[in-house]
């Protein structure tokens, strides 16, 4: 990026629902300000005049790598950008597309497409972070608009935004919600999940499903004890957390606990 020029930005989607790109579009009143500060040169979802080859200062990528084409795409994006941001739980943790990786691909393909699955070039669904170096992780299903805007502002001044490092339970208590575990005996992942959503689900009477992915350093022992005291097995919590972050969840040394019916 030359002095006094706007940074060149690309926004890309792999296999997924495109919800994170849509969330960027939903920034509404902030979009004109963003457009005045950065030069979005490659964004197929939002514009028709795109430069697919130029060097990028920043690239945002959502979705999971689930096909050979996805793999080629993310490698190409990584090669042309100085700063890569994985946006959304799929790109960061694997998301819902990776929740059934324990089932062989050919079985999944046959179940959906039957004998017409030959055209597929699928690979085991994995997050972007599994294939290329990533400079910043912005989780969420979808991402939170305020966190995206904070990140853009930070990048423009040469730094990065700090994400909260406390669990959803902290936000839930701040809303004075009745605990879904203590008062309702539900399997709630709030104590294991990174906050930032404002405890949106528990605030509407729904237990946290862990869609923002796990905390970096959750207190596993305390959580196991807390759940066990209320008749909730660790296996149930592990299975629910794995819905959104299966690839990383099963590499955190928890296989024995997740599969131990006595937890």
Number of helices: 11
Spans of at least 5 consecutive residues with low confidence:
none
How would a crystallographer describe the biggest sheet? Answer: 5 strands, parallel
Shape: globular
Overall residue-averaged pLDDT value: 89
The arrangement of helices and strands along the chain is: EHHEEEHEHHEEHHHHHH
Number of domains: 2
Please tell me how large the radius of gyration is. Answer: 20 Å
The fold-level CATH name of the largest domain is Rossmann fold
Give the number of DSSP strands: 7
- Strand fraction band? 5-15%
Structural class: alpha/beta
Provide the CATH superfamily of the largest domain. NADH:ubiquinone oxidoreductase-like, 20kDa subunit
Question: What is the CATH domain class of the largest domain?
Answer: Alpha Beta
Q: Helix proportion of residues, in percent?
A: 25-40%
The CATH architecture of the largest domain would be: 3-Layer(aba) Sandwich
Distance between the termini: 54 Å
Spatially, the strands of the biggest sheet line up as 2-1-3-5-7
Structural overview:
The protein is α/β, with parallel strands linked by helices and 263 residues long. The protein has two domains: 8-156, Rossmann fold; 168-258, no CATH class. Helices cover 35% and strands 11% of the residues. It has helices at residues 19-25, 31-37, 68-80, 89-93, 105-113, 145-156, 168-174, 200-203, 220-228, 234-249, 255-258; strands spanning 8-13, 39-42, 58-62, 65-67, 84-87, 122-126, 136-138. It is globular. The model has no long low-confidence stretch (mean pLDDT 89).
């Amino acid at each position: 990026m030359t002095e006094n020029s706007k940074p060149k930005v690309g926004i890309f989607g792999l296999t997924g629902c495109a919800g994170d790109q849509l969330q960027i579009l939903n920034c509404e009143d902030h979009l004109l300000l963003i457009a005045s500060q950065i030069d979005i040169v490659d964004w197929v979802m939002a514009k028709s005049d795109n430069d697919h080859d130029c060097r990028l200062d920043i690239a945002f990528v959502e979705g999971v790598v689930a096909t050979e084409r996805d793999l080629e795409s993310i490698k190409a994006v990584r090669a042309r950008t100085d700063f890569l941001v994985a946006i959304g739980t799929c790109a960061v943790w694997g998301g819902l597309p990776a929740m059934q990786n324990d089932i062989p691909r050919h079985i999944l393909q046959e179940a959906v497409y039957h004998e017409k699955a030959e055209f597929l070039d699928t690979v085991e669904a994995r997050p972007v972070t599994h294939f290329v170096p990533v400079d910043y992780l912005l989780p969420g299903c979808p991402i939170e608009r305020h966190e995206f805007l904070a990140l853009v502002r930070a990048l423009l001044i040469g730094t990065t935004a700090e994400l909260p490092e406390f669990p959803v339970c902290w936000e839930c208590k701040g809303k004075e919600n009745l605990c879904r575990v203590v008062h309702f005996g539900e399997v709630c992942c709030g104590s294991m999940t990174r906050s930032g959503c404002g405890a949106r689900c528990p605030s509407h009477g729904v237990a946290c499903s862990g869609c923002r992915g796990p905390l970096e350093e959750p207190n596993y022992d305390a959580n196991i004890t807390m759940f066990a005291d209320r008749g909730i097995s660790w296996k149930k919590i592990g299975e629910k957390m794995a819905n959104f972050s299966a690839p990383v969840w099963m590499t955190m040394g928890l296989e024995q606990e997740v599969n131990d019916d006595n937890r």
